[in-house]
Amino acid sequence: MSAITLDITRLGAEGDGIAETANGPVYVPFSHPGDRLKVAVEKSQGTIMAITEPSPDRIAPVCRHFGPDGENGACGGCSLQHVDPALYAEFKRGLVVNALRSKGIDVEVGALIAAHPGERRRAVFAARKTEKELLLGFNQAGSHHIVNISECAVLKPSIVARLEDIRIVGRALAPNAEAFRMAVLETLTGLDISVEGMPKLSDQQRQSAIAIILKLRGIARVSVDGEILIEPTRPIVRFGDIEASPPAGGFTQATVEAEEAMAELVSGIVGKAKAVADLFAGSGTFALRLAQQSKVHAVEGDAPSVAALEQAARKRQGLKPLTTERRDLFRRPMMASELKHFDAVVFDPPRAGAESQSKELARSTVRKIAAVSCNPLTLARDLSILVAGGYRVVAVTPIDQFLWSPHVEVVAALERPKK
Ligand SMILES: C[S@@+](CC[C@H](N)C(=O)[O-])C[C@H]1O[C@@H](n2cnc3c(N)ncnc32)[C@H](O)[C@@H]1O
C-alpha cells in the first residue's frame, strides 16, 4: 500500500470522492471535491490518512458516528454528511441524469425533492449480542463490524429515544453471538420490530423472550423471520388518510415525507384515469390512495402484502372498486392483452426493475404510465424499452428518501401520444 497526495475532483455514483491518477480513478470514501488529501491507495480504493487542504465547501457532519473518525467506527448508514448541500442535491439529481443519458433518454430531470434529518421511520439495524450488551447500529462499509450507535440524525428522534428498548428486544431473543438484523418501523400504534437471520429459537427461548419484551411499552409487534412472536396491538400506518397494517417484515416506504411526495406525483400522472393497474403494489401505498378516484387493480407478489391491502380496502368506506391479484410479475408480467382494460398503469418494482413487465407495457395501448423506482439504472433500462415501444417520457422527478446515502428514488411520467 502506498500513501500519495491526491486532489478530489468529483463524486462517484457510490458517493466516494474520485481523484484521477495516471493509473486510473481512485475512489476515496468521505472525501469532498476540492479536497487535497494524503491517501493510502490499494488498487483503486483510497483511505484518507490526512486532509492536507480541505475543500472550502466541506460542511461539519452532524453525527458522532460519521466518517473515518466516527465514534465506534465509520457508520455505514451515511456517506455524504460532509458534502455541501447544493452539491449533494446536484449529485443525487445527477445519478438520474447520467442513468437516463446512458440509455439515450433525453428529458429534463426535475430538481431533487429534499429529505431532512429525523424523518426516517424505518431502519434495518445490524445487531449482535456480546457478553455485556447488544451491539446495535449499522455495519461499517464493506465490513461485518457493527458501529454501535447512540445517536442517529436520519432516524426519527422517537426511534432514537427507543434504541435501548430495541436493544432489550434483540438481547432477549438472540440465542448466541451471531449477527442478525432488526428491521424497525415506527407505526401509529408502536414499534413494529422484525428480526431476521436469527437461528431457530426453542419454545423455552421464545417464552422467556416474550416475558421480557412484554414489560416494554410501545411495542406493537415483534416477529422473527416473518413469524409473529407477539402483537400486543396491530401496527397501523396511514396511506394518505387510509389506515393499513403491513405484514411483518413487509415493504413500507422509509419516510412518510418521500412517500407522500411520490404518491402526489403518481396521482398527478394518473389524473382522471377511470381504471388503473398498480403493479408491485405492496400493501397498497399507491393503490389505496388511487382508489379514492379510480377503479384500481393492485398486483403484488407477496401474499401477506396482498392480504393487508385487501383488509385495508375492506375497512375503508367509499373507495371505488379495488381488486387484487397475487402474481409474480417477473415471471408472469401482465400481458398487453390484459393491460387494454386500463387507462393508466403505476409500477414500482424492487431494485432489479421491471424489465419483462416493461416489454408488455411497450406493446400495450395504456395511455399513461407512472414509473416509480429506487434504482435509476434499472429505471433507465425500463424507460428505454417503453420509449422504443412508442412512449414519450414527459417528466422525471428525483426524490431523496435515504438522506446522506447515495440512493435516490425517482418518479417518471410517460404518455403514449395519440395517433
Ligand atoms: C419497492 S416495493 C413497492 C411497494 C409499493 N408500491 C409501495 O410503495 O409501498 C416493491 C414491491 O414489489 C414486490 N415484488 C418483488 N418482486 C416481485 C415480483 N416478482 N412480482 C410481484 N411483486 C414483486 C415486493 O413484495 C414489494 O412489495
Can you walk through the features of this model?
It is built from 10 helices and 22 strands. With 419 residues, it is of the alpha+beta class. A 7-stranded mixed beta sheet has the order 9-8-7-10-11-12-13. It has a 7-stranded mixed beta sheet with strand order 18-17-16-19-20-22-21, with helices on both faces. It has a 3-stranded antiparallel beta sheet with strand order 1-5-6, with no helix packed on it. The structure holds S-adenosylmethionine. S-adenosylmethionine is lined by residues 251, 253, 280-282, 285-286, 300-302, 305, 328-330, 348-350, 374. Its EC number is 2.1.1.190. InterPro entries: MeTrfase_TrmA_AS (IPR030390), NA-bd_OB-fold (IPR012340), SAM-dependent_MTases_sf (IPR029063), TRAM_dom (IPR002792), U5_MeTrfase_fam (IPR010280).
Q: Which structural traits does this protein have?
A:
OB fold (Dihydrolipoamide Acetyltransferase, E2P), 10 helices, seven-stranded mixed sheet, 22 strands, binds S-adenosylmethionine, 3 domains, Rossmann fold
